[in-house]
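Dear colleagues,

For the upcoming journal club I promised to circulate an example of a predicted protein-ligand complex. I picked one with adenosine-5'-diphosphate because it came up in last month's discussion. The inputs are reproduced below in full, followed by the predicted structure.
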Amino acid sequence: MTIIHNRSLDDIDDTAPVLGGNAITRAFSGGSLMRLIGMLVLILILGFLTIYPLSMLLYGSLHSTPPGMAGEFNLDGYRSIMTTQNLMILANTVGISLAKTIPSLTIAVFLAWIVARTDTPFRGTLEVLITLPFFIPPILTAMAWGMLANPQVGVINMVWRWLTGAQDPLINIYSYGGVIWHMCQYSIPFLFLFMVDAFRAMDPSLEESSRMCGASRWTTFRKITLLLMLPVLTSSFMLSFIKGIETFESALFFGLPAGIKVITTDIYESINHRATPDYQYATSLSFAIMGLMFLLVIAQWAVLRGKSFQTVTGKGFRPNVMELGPWRWVTFAFCVLFFVVTVVLPVGQLLLGSFFRFFGFYTYDMLTLEHYRAVFSNSEFWRAVRNTMMLGLLGATATMALGAVVAYISIRTKWRGRSLIDGMAWLPWMMPGMVLGVGFLWAFAMLPGPIPIYGTVWALLLAYIALGTPVAVRVMTGSYHQLSYDLEECSRVHGASWFQTMWRILVALAWPAFAVGWVLTFFGIMRELSASILLYSVGSETLAVVLLKLWANGNAEQVSVIGLMMMLLVILFRWVQLRFIKARISKL
Amino acid sequence: MASVTLENVTRMYGAITAVDHVNLKIKSGEFVTLLGPSGCGKTTTLRMVAGLEKNTGGRISIGENVVSDSDKGYFVPSERRRLGMVFQSYAIWPHMTVFDNVAYPLRIRRKSDKEIRDRVMNALRLVEMEQYAERPSPALSGGQQQRVAIARALVFEPEVLLLDEPLSNLDARLRTQMGDEFRALQQRLKITALYVTHDQSEAMALSDRVVVMHGGKILQVGAPEEIYRRPESRQVAAFFGTPNLLNAKVKDCRPNGGQYYKLDVEGQGWSGECHAATEMPRGTDVTVMVRPENLQIREAGEANGGLSWSGEISQAIFRGPHRSIMVKTPAQTLHVETPSLAEIGIGRPVTVAAPSDAAWAVRN
Ligand SMILES: Nc1ncnc2c1ncn2[C@@H]1O[C@H](COP(=O)(O)OP(=O)(O)O)[C@@H](O)[C@H]1O
Ligand SMILES: [Mg+2]
């Protein structure tokens, strides 16, 4: 038995000439049967999470009526999306994403350089502070900015009018600028996390040798630093651009009121804001955006192929940071300013909003705790807290477990079908939350009656798992790559069975990555809005959904209270992560 | 080619003194090695010469020109010092081919295409890499990267070549071969070289002069043989190989006619003659250094002149070219290297002897 277990890690078909018989008999001997069943189950799970909603999306786009109603197959959906208005929407989507990616990348590069390569004071603390906005659900900052920069009663504009006596507002968040600005707040820390270790890990002697060859600092930066960083910069650019096309919150909050539409909000509107939801239109549009995403992912892959340089040598490193002299206080101030604008201002607004009777009327006699009382005595709020926590804990655990298994099989084994499951797990990468939401909407509705997923929390849970799986797989893949095969083999040579090996060595050593990925997924679930808004129903609301409903009812004060509660949760989890899980996300 | 002069060069990192008042003059065309344990300030010294690090005290000149004077606040940046440098990690740029790597310094200097082509190929020929010119540099082995790094450092005919542990990332065999090749190249081009290593055998094999450093200070400067045979302190003596270091007292001291003094010393249960650099009064505590390869094993009681100890063989290890033998004497256990063919019996009483010119005494 032990022998078979030991073998099952590598493909018996490939590596075991000692075993006689044909592939079939071998495949069904002992552990292989278990393996076969395991693989089948895995394929079924992944298929249900990815292929099934995708096919339902296709079905929906070709079918004239919503699920469950008699209808016919036609191409009306695709015909209906071919309008000049939608061309405008496409241009908006792409343009806004480009317009936020370029400044985000520039600022993120600057911040990464400050933190990784200069002697700016308190760099460690600054790094924690400037990455915090990444963990704040965008819906929170969206609402806070909606209040801060409201053209009539926003604090910023009120202060501006008071200072200058002007009549016109200084900024109007309900504009292209507002949408882009809100997206930047999230993508700058995201890009920072993505790039900072590349900056940190670059061997400084690559630049120093250029100086020794007679090149000035500036020439060195242009000809060496920039070119060495080009692969990282390109992939950051592509990633940020793709994410920009998927975003929902910024365009929902600041675009729609100003008549600025992007694809995700258009899908949302066609289901939620029309007299009768136009499902065929929504699914066709979803399919179209997936096509766009697919092209982008292909482009990304083509651009980056073979373009990554090993700039880390490990040996002979000196902690090389540039001495900025008095300028280091300028860079310090820049980082602090970033933190103030992206975290302190919005959170301050939530605080302010939560203690006054009416948003916008900040006078002493308006102070009140009634919103806190109202929120805490609201059963819908507590239900949403319970739902969110339950979905977060369960979803993060399930997603990471699935990701860990998929990554293990695709990296560490030579089993047949491993690229199939890897590919299936990666599929949601191309599907914006909104699209996956539409897909699942159909998928659950089409399920036979005895499986009542539609309209329950389980629907949300499944969608979250599907959305989180690509990242989970990536995080675990990174950690498996770092673990050497020797450790695993060593344990097995010493008599541990395959299962013991898995448990002792891999789980013990891969646990930090698992924990980091878990927290990341948890944060992802907490901020998820676009799929939730389509899949929730009464009883299964999440905090983000409750927030959106309150906001739509104009209850900015209670929104502030709930927002603060979520913010506390974010800070708590982030603190736990930094404190107890030493490995940083960017390490992976 | 130019000389390099360091006068009272100091580098502080906060309260830590990494390099402490170093004075050194490297003559034009000379090969000088900075040698010392890890963390003793070798790299920092080299980087200050390169201009990659500012000296917080003292003055550095290359040829006739001062390049850094901390008192006057004068500092010439690296790119204008005309120095070639080979880094420990080679620092070959992965986004360029071998040719582009080597051509980089010339392109920076805006040479014509033809000149670049000729000089790059010449430099590559020097390090026997001309057939790899069009290779992308990530596709090179460690030793090849090393050669490219040297070609790149030499191609613009720098005043001085600086090397920071260039061989430490290579395997032992390649290390010796590359070291010998590099020494030959340096002699042929008559280039001034400042070399950093923590490997004493590398330092001895390559250099005209070795600078032994410890804790940011220079302990001794001299030709390899000089330092090996006549260290100035117990620390320097202990740094090279595994010498026998014995405590003793001076009984008598007289000039030897030449540069050195002849001492009669007495230790615990032994006495004899040895040499020293300075005159020492009777009763001075000294350390006598005898290298294992200069000790001989004789039959018990047999001795003539020099130094001798009686004891018994406690351990013998066969090492191929020689045998390491431990002889237990009343003073301490002595390490002796004998030809590996000799027959050795454990527990046999023997006399260990050394000629007086193989024993070197330094003041404690
Ligand atoms: N950037 C730095 N900041 C603080 N201390 C440093 C720095 N660089 C080097 N040191 C210290 O200076 C000393 C000498 O370092 P180095 O010159 O690298 O030694 P070596 O090359 O001989 O191993 C060490 O104690 C090291 O810790
Ligand atoms: Mg060093």
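Two points we might discuss: Chain B has a mean pLDDT of 90. Residues 6 and 60 of chain B are 5 Å apart (CA to CA).

See you all on Thursday,
B. R.
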